[in-house]
Amino acid sequence: MLSARHSAKLQVFYPVLLLLLSMLSIQSGASLAKTLFPVIGAPAVTALRLLLGTLILFFIFKPWRLKFTRESIMPLFLYGLSLGAMNYLFYLALETIPLGIAVALEFTGPLAVAMFSSRRAIDFLWIILVIAGLGLLLPIGDNIHDGLDPLGMLYALGAGVGWALYIVFGQRAGKGYGAATVSVGSLIAAFIFVPIGMLQSSPDIMFSWSILPIALAIAILSTAFPYTLEMIALTRLPAKTFGTLMSLEPCMGAFIGIIFLHEHLTLIQWVALVFIVLASIGSTTTMKSKTKIEEVK
């Protein structure tokens, strides 16, 4: 009896632990990426992450085995474009605003997708919480001198739009290809954003032996390792549980930013972040459909 209970608890705890490790990995990768920005710039770091991450994903998913149709080309292209834009804009945001704030603002993208899929009265509460959180963060009125860079915040919101489009186009593109879709999308994103990164930095520095090991660590922490863990967790957790746990990612980003980047938030910023997290948790737990907020970074 005890062993059966112990086994049941492990079956619940194991995927939760994997998902928490995935979030920790992604945010640690983002903090490590931020340390490279002063050396080669955010566009170049984005390019290296996409390039090395694509190579890793190709090794894992072997997308050359897939059969593509004329109807699947446009959804795959838009999926890859939104994936690359999301990463590019997020790293631009990280150049000037704290990690936790950037993650919270970016998270409004998938949150909007989840809320717009429902029309119930309770959803207005989550919308109010998001608006309140954004009102405390955005440089409006009394908040204009709170130390947050307006352009960086716009980049983060733009990354949120990219994340929302990633979900929309990813659902269409992934119908026939499953988890392997991310490797194809990553390749498309690399074709677009690697040249952009190379144009805004020196290729000699980007591909130097002092940079590549760090870039490889970023690609592993931000792409290969967390995506693998999330796929395992997704097969063992209900959609609502998965979405609720993912809602904690802005807080995870804030704590990682404090520990590794010494980015301490003000009380108002913490309140705003909590509002957005509560809205995400509420939206997920009251969702009628089985649609889940999908994680990409």
Task: Draw up the topology in text.
Blueprint: H1 2-40, H2 42-61, H3 70-94, H4 99-106, H5 108-116, H6 122-137, H7 150-173, H8 181-199, H9 203-206, H10 212-234, H11 239-246, H12 249-261, H13 267-285
Shape: globular
Beta strand %: under 5%
- Number of spatially distinct domains: 1
Secondary-structure element sequence? HHHHHHHHHHHHH
N/C terminus separation: 41 Å
Which ranges are low-confidence, i.e. pLDDT below 50, for 5 or more consecutive residues?
A: 289-297
In helices, the fraction of residues equals over 70%
Number of separate strands = 0
Integer-rounded radius of gyration: 19 Å
What structural category do the secondary elements indicate?
A: mainly alpha
Q: Helical element count?
A: 13
Structure description:
With 297 residues, this protein is mostly helical. It has one domain (16-285). It contains 13 helices and no strands. It has helices at residues 2-40, 42-61, 70-94, 99-106, 108-116, 122-137, 150-173, 181-199, 203-206, 212-234, 239-246, 249-261, 267-285. Helix 1 crosses helix 2, helix 1 crosses helix 12 and helix 2 (42-61) crosses helix 10. The longest helix has 39 residues, at 2-40. It is globular, with a radius of gyration of 19 Å. It is found in: Cell membrane. InterPro entries: AA-Vitamin_Transporters, EamA_dom, EmrE-like. Residues 151-282 form the EamA domain. The chain crosses the membrane at residues 12-30, 36-61, 73-91, 97-117, 124-140, 152-169, 176-199, 205-229, 241-261, 267-287.
In short:
This protein is mainly alpha-helical and 297 residues long. 76% of the residues lie in helices and 0% in strands. It has helices at residues 2-40, 42-61, 70-94, 99-106, 108-116, 122-137, 150-173, 181-199, 203-206, 212-234, 239-246, 249-261, 267-285.
